[in-house]
Amino acid sequence: MTLRQPSMLAVMSILPTTDEVQGPAIHARGLEKAYKELRVLRGVDFEVARGSVFALLGSNGAGKTTVVRILSTLLRADAGTARVNGFDVVTQAAGVRGSISLTGQFGRSTGSSAGGRTSSWSPDCGMSRTLARSRTTC
After folding, report:
1. In the chain, where are the structural domains located?
2. Which residues of 81-117 are buried (b: 16+ CB within 10 A; e: fewer)?
3. Which tens digits make up the pLDDT trace of 49-97?
4. Rounded Cα gap, residues 8 and 32, in angstroms
5. The domain 1-16+23-105 belongs to what CATH superfamily?
6. In angstroms, rounded to a whole number, what is the distance separating the alpha carbons of residues 63 and 42?
7. Is the pTM of this model over 0.90?
């Protein structure tokens, strides 16, 4: 991935957990993904420390959206492993989903903040707008 013309913004927040969870908030090793003959991810490796801020930047087609979809369990990698908040994205997908909040660049709210989009989508996830706002910092 390169640092040219970031074109996609996704906000993925890892919800606070107890001290029982050890290790990085996000751990990705050897992630690979192809669509037919087009290899979009080729061995992506990174870790995100708990409590840190991490930006996934790259040009159009660099694989940013694919990585976010894999980490949020919306897409399966062809190879590699990933853990989010201690949960394996393949074998513990429900744990991953229960421990993250994800919003994309474009939402259905008229506000431009990630918090506005989070509170707009929160009823679809069974969460009150008040609770969603309390968990979102922008």
Report:
1. 1-16+23-105, 106-138
2. ebbbbbbebeebbebbbebbbbbeeebeeeeeebbbb
3. 988 888 888 898 899 999 999 999 999 999 999 999 999 999 999 999 9
4. 20
5. P-loop containing nucleotide triphosphate hydrolases (3.40.50.300)
6. 9
7. no
